[in-house]
Design a protein that fits this description.
Blueprint (H helix, E strand, L loop, with lengths): L4 E9 L10 E5 L6 E3 L24 E8 L11 E6 L11 E7 L2 E5 L2 E9 L2 E9 L8 E4 L2 E10 L3 E2 L5 E10 L5 E8 L3 E6 L1 E9 L4 E9 L3 E9 L1 E9 L11 E6 L4 E6 L2 E7 L1 E9 L2 E9 L5 E6 L8 E6 L2
Parallel strand pairs: 1-18, 3-15, 4-10, 11-18, 19-25
Antiparallel strand pairs: 1-2, 4-7, 5-6, 5-8, 8-9, 11-12, 11-15, 13-14, 13-16, 16-17, 19-22, 20-21, 20-23, 23-24, 25-26
């Protein structure tokens, strides 16, 4: 998107509330700095042509040029666009026939006189315009305004503890809540540091850290022509449980683990010498089963403090000690 000046700003969403803090700074070609999702690489123009039904190929064709802007006062975009031109007459399958297509920046099509629908997509953002190509007279360049921007998502644990990207995933929903209490899913399994291109508006973002119960939500505003960098804050940490015969000892193999909340709800179960998981901040009970004996120990998860919890074996079943060591 050469020649387009975009602003980038930082957004921090808390785990228990939707408060935020950010600073704004100008940034040239902001959408180029991250791996893009649902976008197209810059490439030579690819046009597909088809005359309207009932006319010979190329008959009375007119040259029609198109460009698109993120905002009405912005510069024409030079890459990342997908253009599609449709006939307004549905085919036998009930769909509008594709007349021409192009990927890249500005586009130019040879179109026979008649009516068309022109769609321009920029990732998940897009706009559709009805177009009439006259038989005679001037055919001005068609400029579509996408009214689009985007955001880049990431998250931290606690105040600033970095989370491995493979442990994070995001889902984007519409801000409106339906009558049944659900929201429309816009896109799922979005990875960190990926540009998500969307029409301007408010979106509800859900961040999952691990696969147990570390989930945070935030409403994020997409502004036309701007790239928002949003960092969500998880009140969670990674915990590793191991059953040992003495403090600092080797983990006992073939141990079945259950992790319960303070209310008694089971949040995770596994069988291994080391049981590693991400848990939301709070109080938990670890239950270890080895052969015919059961050992248990309560422990606390603090945001951003990755911890190894040792459950000590005792002669008496269900009597166990524990040693928790920070691994930060």
């Amino acid at each position: 998107m050469a020649g387009t000046s975009l602003a980038a700003r930082w957004f921090l969403a808390g785990a228990m509330a939707l408060g935020s803090a950010f600073s704004a700074s100008a940034q040239e070609d902001a959408f180029k700095n991250f791996r893009a999702l649902d976008s197209t690489a810059k490439m030579p123009k690819l046009n597909a042509f088809s005359a309207l039904p009932g006319g010979p190929p190329g008959a009375l064709s007119r040259d029609v040029q198109f460009d698109a802007k993120l905002t009405s006062d912005g510069q024409p975009m030079q890459e990342g666009l997908t253009w599609r031109v449709f006939s307004p007459i549905a085919g036998e399958d009930g769909k509008l026939p594709l007349v021409a297509s192009s990927e890249g920046g500005s586009a130019s099509f040879q179109l026979a006189p008649g009516d068309y629908f022109v769609n321009c997509a920029f990732g998940r953002a897009g706009v559709t315009k009805k177009l009439k190509v006259p038989e005679n007279g001037n055919m001005p360049k068609q400029t579509l305004v996408l009214d689009a921007g985007g955001f880049v998502l990431n998250a931290v644990a606690g105040t600033d503890q970095r989370i491995p990207p493979k442990e994070l995933s995001f889902s984007v929903y519409s801000a409106e809540v339906r009558d049944n209490g659900d929201r429309a899913l816009v896109m799922s399994d979005v990875k960190p540091n990926t540009v998500v291109r969307l029409n301007a508006g408010t979106y509800h973002v859900v961040s999952e850290y691990g696969d147990v119960n570390a989930v945070v939500r935030a409403d994020i505003q997409v502004e036309a022509g701007k790239l928002t960098q949003a960092v969500l804050q998880h009140r969670a940490a990674q915990i590793t449980l191991k059953l040992v015969s003495q403090p600092g000892g080797e983990a006992i193999a073939d141990t079945a683990w259950s992790v319960l909340t303070a209310a008694g709800d089971v949040v995770n179960e596994s069988v291994s010498a080391f049981s590693t998981m991400v848990l939301a901040e709070g109080e938990y009970l670890a239950v270890a089963r080895n052969k015919t004996k059961i050992y248990q120990r309560s422990f606390t998860v603090k945001a951003g403090r990755n911890t190894e919890v040792e459950v000590l074996m005792r002669d008496t079943p269900q009597m166990a000690g524990a040693v928790a060591n920070d691994r930060n």
